[in-house]
Amino acid sequence: MADRYLSFTGTTPGRFLTRRLGLPQPTALHRWSAEHPSFTGELLHLSAGKSPLDGPDGLAAVLGRTGLAVRARSERPVAVVLDATGVTDIDTLAEVHAALHPVVRSVARSGRVIVLGAPLDTTDHHQAAVQQALEGFVRSLGKEIGRGITVTLLRLTEANAAESTLRFLLSPKSAYVSGQVIGIGGGAEVTAPADWALPLAGRTALVTGAARGIGEAVAATLARDGARVVCLDVPGAAVELDSVAGRLGGTALPLDITAPDAGARILAALPSGGLDVLVHNAGITRDRRLVNMAVERWSSVLDVNLASVLRTTDALLSAGGLATGGRIVATASIAGLAGNAGQTNYAASKAGVAGLVRALAPNAAAEHGVTVNAVAPGFIETKMTAAVPLFIREAGRRMNSLGQGGLPVDVAETTAWLAHPASGGVNGQVVRVCGQSLLGA
Ligand SMILES: NC(=O)c1ccc[n+]([C@@H]2O[C@H](COP(=O)([O-])OP(=O)(O)OC[C@H]3O[C@@H](n4cnc5c(N)ncnc54)[C@H](O)[C@@H]3O)[C@@H](O)[C@H]2O)c1
Question: Measured between alpha carbons, how far is 333 from 305 in angstroms, rounded to an integer?
Fold first, then answer.
């Protein structure tokens, strides 16, 4: 399962040899650890156009709380935040080039470039054109910048609602999220946590498919953030499930999520306050080209990956099982966004998850104060991808802007950001955790 090529290119002979042969040289990413939980260094704050985010409680104040030293000039910034919310025409768009052209080369390895944009104004086609232009700009810069640096576009109208998102993007937790466009605003209530290091303290989270892989990492990350975790997986995985739940001080709920009464059984197993975070992570693949796909392969994948997500979400929402301020995070996949040969069943199920998220998000926020988002993992190093034939596996690993596969913890950190009490403004988003995979980019 280990990426031996990445380890090799990190050694002196490996660096020498791969440079001589003109082979890719992926950068070992800086991820969160208890010893190095945040970046240290300078954040270069630039702007293009006249920003509506200025003001005493505006963007500068939020950036000042990230722990980085905010500067208007920097020789070696670990992060650059370009405020382009005031870009409204071709002239102010040129300021984006003027601001970033001289500094992109100086950004530190594994650093961040974050461009802030405004929502598209459909009554002003000049503003809409140049704000849309930022998407092509960010996605292209993400592909060319290299050195493990990620590039993201964040659309916002107000800085405070974006604090949890900016803290996530400006930390090692977002190491494998690049080339993304994230919109903020119009969701549910934004609640700043008493302690930013334990944002989920006092909250209860349920993670499906928690016995191993990404689900296990999600449960561990939510527990790290203070949540009481309820770990759900099939009864056949009860031993692994007990061990995960025991290690995290949580509870195990052995249950097949496709059971017709799964929603009721989850409700019965919950503490009296109900759930604050529901993570639909359980998923299966049964790959075949459509011509060879027996109906059982179709129905089992659709049942686990989509129908059970719809059923349990409906059951929990209608019974009041999700507290106000709750968060639902579902798991899509880049295969669902781009399509993949041999995966008509899987891609249909995961595209369905994206549809569910987009349609339910505004209603769930209005009626229940609950946000609904999805993570869409790319190539993540798990047992699922270890089973992929070597050549396809190696292609999957390298065909992204960071030149390597992601780790389960990358999906887990993204889930934890979406589950954050201050992420109420993030709603209806499908966020790829794929190192900017070329698949469907
Ligand atoms: N690994 C990747 O590269 C990748 C890429 C894109 C999306 N995903 C998605 O991420 C999620 C987790 O993937 P993973 O790689 O950790 O997979 P995995 O196979 O390692 O783990 C999935 C877990 O879900 C559980 N599960 C399956 N059916 C269930 C059911 N009916 N009821 C309860 N639990 C059930 C399994 O027992 C298992 O523990 C899935 O939804 C998958 O589709 C993974």
Answer: 11
Is 380 close to ligand 1, i.e. is its CB under 6 Å away?
yes
**pLDDT tens digits, 348-401:** 999 999 999 999 999 999 999 999 999 999 999 998 788 888 888 888 899 999
Evaluate the CA torsion angle 281, 286, 287, 290 in order and state its sign: negative
Report field, pTM of the whole predicted structure over 0.85: yes
Q: What residue ranges define each of the domains in the chain, with the CATH number in brackets? A: 31-183 (3.40.50.720), 204-433 (3.40.50.720)
- Nearest CA-CA partner of 79 in 103, 50, 47: 103
Structure tokens at 98: 């003027």
Q: How many other C-beta atoms are found inside a 10 Å radius of the C-beta of residue 323?
A: 17
Of ligand 1's listed atoms, the one at least distance from the Cα of 304 is 31
Query: Which of 346, 347, 398, 433 is labelled catalytic?
Result: 346
Q: What residue owns the CA closest to ligand 1's atom 19?
A: 384
Cβ 72 vs Cβ 43: under 8 Å:
no
- Residue from 1, 208, 281, 415 to probe ligand 1 pocket by mutation (most atoms less than 8 Å from CB): 281
The minimum-distance atom of ligand 1 relative to the CA of 335 is 6
Strands of the sheet containing 150-155, edge to edge, are: 69-71, 42-49, 79-86, 112-117, 150-155, 180-183
Token representation of residue 414: 């993204």
Active site residue 5: no
- Sequence-separated (6 or more) residues with CB below 8 Å from residue 7: 14
| 227 φ, ψ (degrees, to nearest 5) | -75, 150
209 lines ligand 1 (CB under 6 A): yes
b/e 394-422 (16+ beta carbons within 10 angstroms → b): eebbbbbbbbbbbbbbbbbbbbbbbbbbb
Question: DSSP 3-state assignment of 300?
Answer: helix
Q: What is the pLDDT of residues 147-167, one digit of tens each?
A: 999 999 999 999 999 999 999
Protein residue whose Cα sits closest to atom 1 of ligand 1: 380
286 lines ligand 1 (CB under 6 A): no
Q: Residue 338 and residue 183: Cα distance in Å, rounded?
A: 20
